[in-house]
Backbone:
């Protein structure tokens, strides 16, 4: 199953709507992104073509990896990502602990009502109604807890990968032919970490060939045009400062 890593930051340059992941073909083997407005209202609302997921993701990766060729960028990027990952981990842990407390309170309440019923203090109808309500509440919090557990696992994976990638960068020279950087999972993990770290702010599909990427390096926004259907190098159209490459 394809993970649409650019969901949330990929936009249609025609109507401004977000682009959402789609799976098409007889065997569902083509994955891409489609304008959300077009998907909901039809081609009359927006005629932007679907974009191949692999092409736009690979093109984004090829451009974003160049950021790490500038030593100053590396320090800034890693500091930003570390702060955001640490903050995200702390926030999720707080939410997780709060939900666990809620579940514990519900379980204690269920226990009290059960004991009251067994002692003959509550009639069967009332006990059944209260029990059903509390069990549904518990199930709701259990689902939230499971969702947070998944998010926590993702954050932990990002933290582990973050340090692996940092160690890699400081020990091995980046190369377009390097097997590490051509691994699909590696590419997606790097993109996900940079998106989570708000380094990649937004990607806009302009035409069936061109896209615009907006980066944020130390609060300096940079926009670049890339041709995601060829190996043409990106064109810098951003502001001029020492952090732009």
Residues:
């Amino acid at each position: 199953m394809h993970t649409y890593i650019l969901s949330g930051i990929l936009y249609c340059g025609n109507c401004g709507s977000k682009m959402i992941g789609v799976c098409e073909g007889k065997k569902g083997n083509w994955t891409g992104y489609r304008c959300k407005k077009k998907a909901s209202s039809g081609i009359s609302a927006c005629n932007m073509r679907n974009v191949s997921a692999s092409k736009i993701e690979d093109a984004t990766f090829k451009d974003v990896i160049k950021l790490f060729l500038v030593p100053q960028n590396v320090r800034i990027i890693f500091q930003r990502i570390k702060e955001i990952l640490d903050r995200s981990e702390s926030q999720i842990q707080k939410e997780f602990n709060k939900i666990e407390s809620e579940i514990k309170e519900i379980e204690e309440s269920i226990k009290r009502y059960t004991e009251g019923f067994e002692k003959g203090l509550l009639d069967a109808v009332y006990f059944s109604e209260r029990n059903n309500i509390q069990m549904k509440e518990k199930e709701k919090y259990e689902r939230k807890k499971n969702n947070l557990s998944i998010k926590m696992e993702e954050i932990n994976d990002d933290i582990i990968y973050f340090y692996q990638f940092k160690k890699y960068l400081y020990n091995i020279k980046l190369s377009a032919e390097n097997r590490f950087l051509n691994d699909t999972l590696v590419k997606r993990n790097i993109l996900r970490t940079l998106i989570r770290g708000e380094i990649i702010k937004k990607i806009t599909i302009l035409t069936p060939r061109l896209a615009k990427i907006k980066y944020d390096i130390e609060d300096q926004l940079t926009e670049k045009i890339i041709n995601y259907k060829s190996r043409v190098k990106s064109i810098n159209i951003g502001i001029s400062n020492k952090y732009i490459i």
Remarks:
- The CA atoms of residues 62 and 176 lie 8 Å apart.
- Residues 10-74+176-236 form one domain.
